[in-house]
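User: Just a sanity check before I run the rest of the batch. Below are the structure tokens for the first item. I only need the designed sequence back.
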């Protein structure tokens, strides 16, 4: 600005003096045209030229554009990711927080390894680059190397004569003249490790700091923006854009397998692009060989980074500082990617971890996983990302995997309710543990836990049958039977498997298949159990209901009556198992046309269940619907009342589209007519 002002003034003076000189030297009494006005009125000309000089000092407005500002200086800022996807909400929120915090703003972007923290910070820098005069990127993974990077940064800023002790202060002092500025500390540890490098006091003026970190504990030093995995929409968008020919459906299934982890999605796109693998074929590989696929596929800008190496440093640190946490991590790696109840470990009769015996040691063990971003706590549960689990499994030996599976089978068998039908609290506990039971038993079990696995499979199938998932229950129970028969000497257990299979086939509408299974179960139990065993009563009641479906009502009646007598003698008149026998006997009477007796039996069963179970329990809903059907057969208009309540219970517990709910709603519609 000053240079332009001086130039304009000099130009005016030269013009003015030249005009006077020419006027004095000229012998003409008149100049041609308008020049004569200059000869006669030179001072007027000078006054007219002053506004023109002022116009010259204004910014160039040609074409309606302001001159482009000077590009900000940058230090080690990585190239912009041309495939950056989504995160608009996170970027806007980060900008809002940084700009509303006063002279200095420090924001920690916290999240799981591979979730895209660095990419978010770099994209922020480029998106708002015009808002800063200086932007620096510092690799903070090794705190000891931060000082050397500040020395290099000081040279970049023109600071040559500065000692190592003063280099950080010198850098921030120099940045005072380059406000506003932005420094990104990438992959920082705890705040204490970076205290020497973070600005404070008078040095912290009109600047922004972003720290990307997997480690918890930044809330006392900075604002914390928790970065989650992609939304499914963002995952699908990335895959469809990066991999030609990818359908939305296939992209959705790949994203599901990869848990929407951005790095894994980029790696998958890189693998498919390099190998020209069709997305459908990649999905097959991913589903069957997840652990192997995590190490395959390169990122163009980070060729050394793959999912399997993401958490290695964190695990090595745990091995040094918290070896019990590594053991917990390995146990959790073989469970489902669902909330893991921590009492699975603290309540196990066989102590899985020594730390679980001491509340403080246990809390710090669990906290170590959460603190390093390997897991997160959700109330009484621990949650691991599916790819963290897969990476841990990939690093374990075959013997190590087998040992952990044996321990988990035993712990789960102790944790799940065995009395699924009689225990009123069995259902919520099973809902929480079922995914983990299925994960641990999905493959052939090691020899050391085959018996435990067989029981877990059968109990899981019983629970699934209770909630109406018969198709899922069937293969589990078939596997349980195969294991028990292969083990030998387990007649009673084989009988339990058989009777559960019979119940599943009966509910699937295949009584002809169920009958021989129930008959074989009854023979086995009568040969190895006491005559008054409740297990025999279950066999009798199941066989009776199966015979009814086959039209053999007279043969079914004594079986149902005998089952009721056994359970009443074993448990008393008000036991849940007595209610099952009452329902079985009511089924026989209803099929025989004796609806009045059936209503009395069902009403007694309902009283027992309503006294023991929650008001919205499925067993109450099933009994209400059965009562409504029998009342309707008696032309009783009150049938609509239990039908509506029963349908509401099934709708609430099973969902609108479940086949049992649809049958219940159809019954209500029929009774309205």
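Assistant: Here's the designed sequence for the first item:
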């Amino acid at each position: 600005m000053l240079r332009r002002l001086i130039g304009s003034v000099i130009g005016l003076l030269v013009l003015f003096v030249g005009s006077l000189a020419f006027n004095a030297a000229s012998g003409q009494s008149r100049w041609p045209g308008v020049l004569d006005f200059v000869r006669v009125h030179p001072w007027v000309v000078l006054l007219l030229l002053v506004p023109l000089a002022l116009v010259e000092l204004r910014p160039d407005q040609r074409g309606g554009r302001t001159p482009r500002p000077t590009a900000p200086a940058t230090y080690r800022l990585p190239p912009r990711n041309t495939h950056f996807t989504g995160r608009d909400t996170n970027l806007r929120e980060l900008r809002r927080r940084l700009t509303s915090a006063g002279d200095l703003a420090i924001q920690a972007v916290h999240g799981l390894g591979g979730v895209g923290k660095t990419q978010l910070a770099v994209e922020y820098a480029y998106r708002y680059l015009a808002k800063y005069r200086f932007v620096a990127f510092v690799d903070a993974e090794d705190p000891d190397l931060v000082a050397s990077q500040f020395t290099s940064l000081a040279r970049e800023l023109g600071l040559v004569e500065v000692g190592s002790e003063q280099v950080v202060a010198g850098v921030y002092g120099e940045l005072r003249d380059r406000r506003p500025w932005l420094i990104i500390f990438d992959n920082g540890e705890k705040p204490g490790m970076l205290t020497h490098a973070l600005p404070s006091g008078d040095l912290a003026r009109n600047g922004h700091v972003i720290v990307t970190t997997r480690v918890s504990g930044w809330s006392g030093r900075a604002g914390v923006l928790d970065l989650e995995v992609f939304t499914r929409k963002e995952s699908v968008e990335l895959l469809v854009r990066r991999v030609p020919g990818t359908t939305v459906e296939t992209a959705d299934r790949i994203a599901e397998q990869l848990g929407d982890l951005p790095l894994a999605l980029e790696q998958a796109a890189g693998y498919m692009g390099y190998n020209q693998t069709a997305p459908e074929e990649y999905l097959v590989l991913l589903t069957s060989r997840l652990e192997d696929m995590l190490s395959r596929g390169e990122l163009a800008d980070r060729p050394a980074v793959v999912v399997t190496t993401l958490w290695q440093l964190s695990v090595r640190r745990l091995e040094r500082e918290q070896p019990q946490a590594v053991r917990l991590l390995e146990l959790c790696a073989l469970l489902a990617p669902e909330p893991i109840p921590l009492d699975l470990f603290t309540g196990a009769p066989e102590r899985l971890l020594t730390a679980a015996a001491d509340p403080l040691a246990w809390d710090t063990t669990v906290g170590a996983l959460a603190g390093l971003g390997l897991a997160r706590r959700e109330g009484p549960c621990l949650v691991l990302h599916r790819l963290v689990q897969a990476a841990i499994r990939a690093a374990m030996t075959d013997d190590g995997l087998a040992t952990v599976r044996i321990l988990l089978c035993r712990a789960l068998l102790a944790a799940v309710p065995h009395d699924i039908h009689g225990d009123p609290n069995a259902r919520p506990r099973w809902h929480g543990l079922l995914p983990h039971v299925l994960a641990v038993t999905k493959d052939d079990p090691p020899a050391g836990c085959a018996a435990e696995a067989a029981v877990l499979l059968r109990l899981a199938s019983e629970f699934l049958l209770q909630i109406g998932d018969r198709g899922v229950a069937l293969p589990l129970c078939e596997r349980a039977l195969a294991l028990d028969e292969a083990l030998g000497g387990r007649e009673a257990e084989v009988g339990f498997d058989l009777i559960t299979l019979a119940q599943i086939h009966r509910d699937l509408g295949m009584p002809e298949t169920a009958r021989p299974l129930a008959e074989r179960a009854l023979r086995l139990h009568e040969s190895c159990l006491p005559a008054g065993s409740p297990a025999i009563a279950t066999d009798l009641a199941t066989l009776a209901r199966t015979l009814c479906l086959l039209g053999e009502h007279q043969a079914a009646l004594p079986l149902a009556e005998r089952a009721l007598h056994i359970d009443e003698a074993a448990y008393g008149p008000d036991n849940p198992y007595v209610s099952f026998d009452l329902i079985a006997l009511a089924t026989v009477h209803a099929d025989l046309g004796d609806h009045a007796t059936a209503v009395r039996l069902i009403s007694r069963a309902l009283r027992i269940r309503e006294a023991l179970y929650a008001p919205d329990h499925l067993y109450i809903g099933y009994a209400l619907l059965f009562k409504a059907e029998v009342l309707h057969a008696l032309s009783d208009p009150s049938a609509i009342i239990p039908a509506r309540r029963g349908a509401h219970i099934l709708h609430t517990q099973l969902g609108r589209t479940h086949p049992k709910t649809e049958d219940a709603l159809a019954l209500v519609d029929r009774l309205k007519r």
